[in-house]
Fold:
Amino acid sequence: MNREHKREGILGSALLVIALGLGVANLGAQESRKVLLNPVPVYPETAKKFRLSGVVKVQIVIAPDGHIKETKVIGGHPLLVFAVEDTLRGWKYAPASNETTMQLEFNFHP
Structure:
């Protein structure tokens, strides 16, 4: 991964944290894939009402065309997991020659 791509990934995660108080981190990847579209999960109203916070960890498989082909929840509260899974349907990565597996972490705080 070159410095420019690494800097873009770090900046993108930092902007997500600033924008909505939700942290998104790439915990590991086979290869670097540039994110083209990554909307932030909406903090569920029910979770807000109960001041629920927590971390959702998911493993994703990105198809060569850049769409998320598969998600596997590693951990997190079901209310927060639903918000993450719903949002990941809208994510898109840059095309690549083969599939990429990544682990993402989403932090929710009231």
Observations:
- The beta strands are 23-29, 35-37, 54-62, 68-75, 92-93, 100-108.
- Residues 14 and 53 are 19 Å apart (CA to CA).
- The longest strand covers residues 54-62.
- Residues 3-108 form a domain with the TolA/TonB C-terminal domain fold (CATH 3.30.2420.10).
